[in-house]
Amino acid sequence: MTEDADLGMRAARYRIKVRMLPSTTWEEANSLFMNWLRQRVRWIKGFMQTTLVYTRHPVQMFKNFGFKQYGAFLLFVGSAPLTLLTNLILWALFLNYTFFHYGPDLLFTDPWVRWPATVSFVFGNTVMVLLAVWGGWKRGYKDFLWWGLSMPIYWLLHSIASYWALVELLTKPHYWYRTKHGLAGQIVDVPERQRASASS
């Protein structure tokens, strides 16, 4: 992810266009929790580091990339770690106030804050769940659709990984976890109809 973000910025600087290919990557999903979490730590840390590199001279960056491309970088790469860091705080405030009625009253009693926050919370999480379910349904993985409901937990774990990544960035900026592969134990036989739909 780190090199992808960096290479994307280098390509954008020289006005090289990148296109998506309608293909399927048959890669092994991470099957061990800590291995998966460390992988996310590495990715998020990479986004943080890439953002720091490309925001050292913001005026020059705007000149090199233009407002649209540099703005897209800040939105999709730069804001990703920030969103994950604040996500855990907002969840903590929400749960604390909901169950213990303790927290800053302004966030929960002022209608100008409460209603936009509630709509964003419900709409955002609903969209993420529906996208996960729809993706599995479209590809024919109907046995896995229930996992789409776990998306809020998925993002919560990403938030935990973001704090881990931040600590590592400050204490061990040159250290990167290596993801262990070959853990599946057996190759899952993909139905022929799914292979055909993926290649069409």
Write up what this structure looks like.
The chain has helices at 2-13, 33-54, 58-100, 105-109, 111-139, 151-171, 192-199. It is mainly alpha-helical. The protein has one domain. The chain is globular.
Task: Give the helix proportion (percent range).
Answer: over 70%
Overall pLDDT:
82
Strand content: under 5%
User: From N to C, what is the helix and strand string?
Assistant: HHHHHHH
InterPro entries: Nucleotide-diphossugar_trans
Transmembrane segments: 70-95, 115-137, 144-166
Keywords: Membrane, Transmembrane, Transmembrane helix
How would you summarize this macromolecular structure in one to three sentences?
The protein is mainly alpha-helical. It has seven helices and no strands. 12% of the residues are buried.
